[in-house]
Write a structure and sequence with these properties.
One of its GO terms (molecular function) is ATP binding. Keywords: ATP-binding, Cytoplasm, DNA synthesis, Kinase, Metal-binding, Nucleotide-binding, Transferase, Zinc. The chain has 196 residues and is α/β, with parallel strands linked by helices. The chain has a single domain (4-141), classed as 3-Layer(aba) Sandwich (Rossmann fold), CATH 3.40.50. It has helices at 15-28, 68-77, 94-107, 126-134, 183-190, and strands at residues 4-9, 33-38, 48-50, 56-58, 60-62, 83-86, 111-116, 137-140, 153-156, 178-181. The radius of gyration is 17 Å and the shape is elongated.
């Protein structure tokens, strides 16, 4: 039975590595997969999913106006497809998460989404909020804070290396811009949590 999965974490936890390994496992058994990634994240190049440890794969890109159900239905018509993989799933719109759920329900295709849960301000991304609500299975990809506790939050660093407390929700970057922290150290870096 097909399911909608959401693998979530903070920055630099290895979500893309997990995605690429899972896709490889399908391909190694002779099963075709369909890889999608957000068009706005070009850190690894346009249409490429890459991990910090050096592995990568070509993927089709999606933007917020794409109908992902239609794209997946067309992909299925072109030949066998065992699983759909979506990287940078936090950038999905609410409508696109419903389209992915429909692909699971109506096309009987498993969809595995990988993305951030919260932004640098501790707020859910719209795509992540919808995935948390609609997914059949939630799986946390864990990483650690510098103190050794589980990292659940992320800070965005300014040019001076200090945590930013304001700015747009989306700003593409990697290790040079973002640091994953436990909630306690995130609160320290942010000068206490909003509303505290």
């Amino acid at each position: 039975m097909a399911k909608l999965y959401f693998h979530y974490s903070t920055m630099n936890a290895g979500k893309s590595t997990v995605l690429l390994q899972a896709a490889h496992n399908y391909q190694e058994r002779g099963m075709a997969v369909y890889l999608l990634t957000a068009a706005l994240d070009e850190r690894a190049g346009t249409g490429r999913i890459a991990s910090r440890i050096g592995i990568g794969a070509e993927a089709e890109t999606f933007s917020e106006t794409d109908d992902l159900f239609e794209r997946i239905a067309q992909r299925k018509q072109s030949g066998p497809c065992a699983c759909i993989f979506v990287d940078e799933a936090q950038f999905l719109s609410d409508a696109q998460v419903w389209q992915l759920a429909r692909a699971v329900d109506d096309l009987n295709l498993p969809v595995m989404c990988y993305g951030l849960r919260v932004d640098f301000r501790g707020k859910l991304f719209p795509g992540s909020a919808s995935l948390l609500a609609l997914s059949d299975e939630l799986r946390e990809v864990r990483t650690i804070c510098h103190c050794g506790r589980k990292a659940t939050m992320v800070t965005r660093l300014g040019p001076d290396g200090r945590a930013l407390t304001e700015g747009g929700q989306v700003e593409i970057g990697g290790n040079e811009r973002y640091v994953s922290l436990c909630r306690r150290h995130w609160r320290d870096a942010m000068g206490e949590a909003p509303g505290a």
